[in-house]
Automatic annotation (TrEMBL):
PROSITE patterns, A to Z: GGDEF
Enzyme Commission number(s) of this protein: 2.7.7.65
Domain GGDEF, chain residue ranges per copy: 186-319
Key words, A-Z: Nucleotidyltransferase, Transferase
Reactions mediated catalytically: 2 GTP = 3',3'-c-di-GMP + 2 diphosphate
SMART domains: GGDEF (SM00267), PAS (SM00091)
Protein name, entry field: diguanylate cyclase
Length: 320
């Protein structure tokens, strides 16, 4: 094989690789007109090299942020340095649909990109080459992992039966609120809520019925909450509700509404209708409370008074 024949064969092989390589290759002139468009770009855009040749890039692909891309490319031309973009910063440059069955959850292809200068024989930058890497698999896996971690974090703070905060998460919120109102002097009120005669429900209808009752009472709590309020399952049949920036008198309206809602509920279990009530104790924040447990104890004493007074009632701490 002569040297000329070998050179021609090498060019032919390079062209074959250029067209079949699994990355996008685009060459732009200095005024951002497309000069080279490989098979990857044709397959994903639906546009042939003939259709895009000498076309202004931003006319063909309006989704590209022209100002942003020019800011990325200007240093490449001036300094002859490479530039890089990653999908975490910008999901894609070319908005290609994702057709991979494994990563079907992604609507569009996530892309990493390398931009480097092409020079003439004098070393002057005349063109830019953009390489597009399809990183959809990596991006989707990363996002699914982050989503799963988020769900696990949520589950670690959530009571499985009721969907409310579990005791640990709720107490953490109470500690933060205690510090805030201690420092700011704002008003917040703590409610302790207990299902009356709950043991009788379990003994008469079984623990499955008890779980249904707990879930329904928790649902009533949720329906009465504002977005800033924090409710948790404190333990067994007892719930705790933190009413942020709320005085005892204001909290009384919430507590009475909740009590009446629960009293009016008819809970169906095994074709039987169960009726339950709740007793509620209110403890508003007081400046002389030394620690958050004192706040809980204040509301808990009011709850005990509701129980001792005949149940199905609301009592404010201090008998105010």
């Amino acid at each position: 094989m002569s040297q000329i024949t070998a050179d021609v064969a090498e060019i032919h092989w390079l062209m074959d690789m250029f067209q079949t390589v699994d990355v996008g290759l685009v060459v732009l002139s200095a005024d951002y007109r497309i000069q080279v468009w490989n098979g990857f770009m044709e397959n994903h855009s639906g546009l042939t090299p003939r259709q895009v040749r000498d076309r202004y890039l931003f006319d063909l692909f309006s989704e590209i942020d022209e100002d942003w891309l020019r800011r990325k490319c200007d240093p490449v031309i001036l300094l002859k340095n490479r530039a890089f973009t990653i999908w975490e910063q910008r999901p894609y440059i070319f908005k290609f649909r994702n057709y991979r069955p494994i990563t079907g959850s992604a609507e569009y292809m996530y892309q990493n990109c390398t931009i480097f200068p092409l020079t003439d024989t004098r070393g002057v930058v005349t063109h830019l080459c953009i390489i597009i890497y399809d990183v959809t698999d990596v991006a989707v896996s990363r996002m699914e992992l982050e989503s799963m971690n988020g769900r696990l974090q949520t589950l670690s703070k959530t009571d499985f039966l009721t969907g409310l905060h579990n005791r640990g998460a709720w107490e953490d919120a109470l500690i933060n609120e205690f510090k805030r109102v201690k420092r700011s002097g704002h008003q917040s009120t703590l409610l302790m809520v207990d299902i009356d005669h709950f043991k009788r429900v379990n003994d008469t209808y079984g623990h499955a019925a008890g779980d249904v009752v707990i879930k329904q009472v928790a649902l009533a709590v949720k329906k009465n909450l504002r977005s800033t309020d924090i409710a948790g399952r404190y333990g067994g049949e007892e719930f705790a509700v933190l009413l942020v920036d709320t005085s005892a008198d204001q909290a009384l309206f919430f507590a009475e509404r909740l009590r009446k809602n629960v009293e009016a509920m008819q809970i169906e279990f095994n074709q039987q209708l169960l009726n339950v009530t709740v007793s509620i104790g209110l403890g508003d924040f007081q400046a002389d409370l030394q620690q958050y447990r004192d706040w809980i104890e204040r509301a808990d004493k009011a709850l005990y008074q509701s129980k001792a007074g005949g149940r199905n009632q609301v009592t404010k701490a201090g008998g105010i």
